Structures are given as structure tokens and as C-alpha cells.
Amino acid sequence: AQTVTQSQPEMSVQEAETVTLSCTYDTSESDYYLFWYKQPPSRQMILVIRQEAYKQQNATENRFSVNFQKAAKSFSLKISDSQLGDAAMYFCAYRSPTQGGSEKLVFGKGTKLTVNP
Amino acid sequence: EPEVTQTPSHQVTQMGQEVILRCVPISNHLYFYWYRQILGQKVEFLVSFYNNEISEKSEIFDDQFSVERPDGSNFTLKIRSTKLEDSAMYFCASSQRIGGTAFFGQGTRLTVV
Lengths: 117, 113
Prior knowledge:
- The complex is a heterodimer.
- By secondary structure, chain A is mainly beta.
- Helices cover 0% and strands 50% of the residues of chain A.
- The radius of gyration of chain A is 14 Å and the shape is globular.
- Chain B is globular, with a radius of gyration of 13 Å.
- Chain B is mainly beta.
- Chain B has strands spanning 5-7, 10-13, 19-24, 31-37, 43-50, 53-57, 65-68, 75-79, 88-95, 103-104, 108-112.
- Chains A and B meet through strand 5, strand 6 and strand 11 of A and strand 4, strand 5, strand 9 and strand 10 of B.
């Protein structure tokens, strides 16, 4: 079974600075999908970024980018120019390939990000 | 922008009572999911639903749980006889196609007393 590990329960960053959140995963599959979701105090789950494992290029979405290291099974999230609104719980998630695989998301335990003014 | 909506936002129920959590997925989505998050813990998969039947369920999703798509828009999660440990945030999600990104609703906080 796939597992997702987020080793940083909490992180903090100064406003306008850059922060990197770590995520590692364990799988025997060669093709899969990885996601970062944000959960602000309202507790809604908001998609931040998605990466397909077959793509070598790291996904980017405005101030958010990932460092996807397939061999190391690492998928970190970099937030540039941090803003107060970035403060939230961040969850890394894994999903199997579509054909014959599970559609479910497997989540890590999350990293609580605090942004200091 | 289309979104997944869930009602109610917060429900308090007595232990042993039945509860129905409601979700309206994004209109052109075909795959539907329920997840739950016990306070302070990670988000856990409960069930996936496609073509009017359950496509996958977790160990958590026992006989006390059921899902239904009673009409063309709603997707419901029923807990027949609630237990204290069912207290959690329940998230509905939907995706347009197999392999598509799952979009989540804002969640229903269920409190069992």
C-alpha cells in the first residue's frame, strides 16, 4: 500500500520569504499523481498544485512550485514571496495511475504553515 | 467557478441517531468521493462512487455507512447509527473523469454527542 510522509508537523516563514515543505512517499508503481492541498482555518480542502509522475518537468502555479524527485520519491512544495493568506495546513497526497489503480487519494499527516508579518 | 457544495456545514446529532450528509458535486463530474478527517488527524478515504455504484471503499466504510445519488445532482452519505468516534469533518469530492483532479467541498463538521 502506498504511504505518504510529511516529516515537518509545523513550519514558519516570514512574509515575503520562501519556504519549502517536504513530502516523501512510498510506492511500487511507476506512474502516479501527486498533489498538494491547502486547508486554511475554514477547513476547506483547496488544490494547490498537481504533478504527473511521467512528466519530468516540475509543476508550477504562480508562487507555488514543486521539486519532484522520482527516484528519491520526494515531492516538496516551494512557496515563494509568502503571504499572510498562505497560512494553512498543507497536505501532500498520492493517487495511483488511472488504469486498474485506485482513484482514492492517500494523504500525509500535514504541515501547519505559519506566516509571520 | 463551479464548486462542490456540502450541507449542512455543521451537524450535531445524538449517539445512535441516523444522519445524512449532503453534497452537490460539480455538474459535469462523474466520479464522487467521501473522505473524513478526525480533528487533528489526516484526511482518510471512505468511498468512491461511479456510474451509480460504489467503485471502492475503505475499511472504515462498514455496514453503518451508505452512499446514494438519489437524483442527478445530489450525492449523500448516510450513517445509520452514529457513534462518538464518527465525530469528524466529512468532505465530499468530485472529479470529471477517471484520473482527473478531485475538487473538494467545504466539508460538514459532524459532532456526535
